[in-house]
Amino acid sequence: MAAVSSLSLSAIGQTSGDRKVNVSSARYLVSNFGGFRFRTSLLYQPVQVRLSTTASPYVVHCMSTATDVPTVSETKSDFLKAYKRPIPSVYNTVLQELIVQQHLMRYKRTYRYDAVFGLGFVTVFDQLMEGYPSDEDRDAIFQAYIKALKEDPEQYRIDAQKLEEWARAQTSSSLVEFPSRDGEVEAILKDIAERAGGKGSFSYSRFFAVGLFRLLELANATEPTVLEKFCAALNINKRSVDRDLDVYRNLLSKLVQAKELLKEYVDREKKKIEERSESQKANEAVKKCLGEYQYVGQ
């Protein structure tokens, strides 16, 4: 079991010192990030939308629909149609893998969007796209990605911000005591706990694990004991969370290294271009001087 002890998501992206890495290694890890091996029959399940009657009016269950389920290739095509600009390979490789995995997750029979899942995806996306050349393009990619999955990108951002603000106001004790408290976020967590406990559909995912740990991080409550209590209150298997956070950490570590290698390559190419430019200028200056010398000597 991968133990999680006082681990910061901001520190997850640090390199391990092993520089022998390429984009394919990041692709391998992100391929394992989802951990989904679904039968194709799961892509053809009925869909419905219902409101929770046992939790809070804030909670809406969005279920997968069966009749209009797009194929993986259609989802990828929708993403590429919505964002037509080229994406650097180190980012595009990971995005293409993630959207395939999230498509399978999105149209799984038991899929229910919830705010913790949304926070987890936003955290993963922002970590993966950190350092992207353009903030505007990064946001456009996010919009295109979520819309390709037939979901609302604004809802993801709103939910992520709401949970982050809530978590910053929590302590180790108040975080795990959500079942005995009232509030919008508390109602969301209670609904998750109820469904995960068997009173409704719940589909655990690694995005959910990342979102859960993000709450702990913002509350400065990343001790393993707090994570264990929080998982117990949510009826989530802590061993699965530990394992998935370890996968996420390794993914980001390799991705950071791949980005560094890409940056080094770009810097070398820029230097070569500058050197060629300087050499060309020098040759032109010599030619000009020789031409002037020949003109004076006539």
Description:
- Helix 3 packs across helix 4 and helix 5 crosses helix 10.
- The protein is elongated and about 90 Å long.
- A two-stranded antiparallel sheet has the order 1-2.
- It is 65% helix and 2% strand.
- The chain contains twelve helices and two strands.
- The N terminus is likely disordered.
- It is mostly helical.
Q: What structural class do you assign from the helix and strand content?
A: mainly alpha
Number of E strands: 2
Distance between the termini: 87 Å
Q: Assign an overall shape.
A: elongated
Instruction: Indicate the radius of gyration in whole angstroms.
Output: 25 Å
Mean pLDDT: 78
What level of helicity do the residues show? 55-70%
Largest sheet: 2 strands, antiparallel
H/E element sequence: HHEEHHHHHHHHHH
- The helix count comes to 12
Which ranges are low-confidence, i.e. pLDDT below 50, for 5 or more consecutive residues?
Answer: 1-32, 34-61
Strand order of the largest sheet: 1-2
Assembly level: single chain
Percent strand equals: under 5%
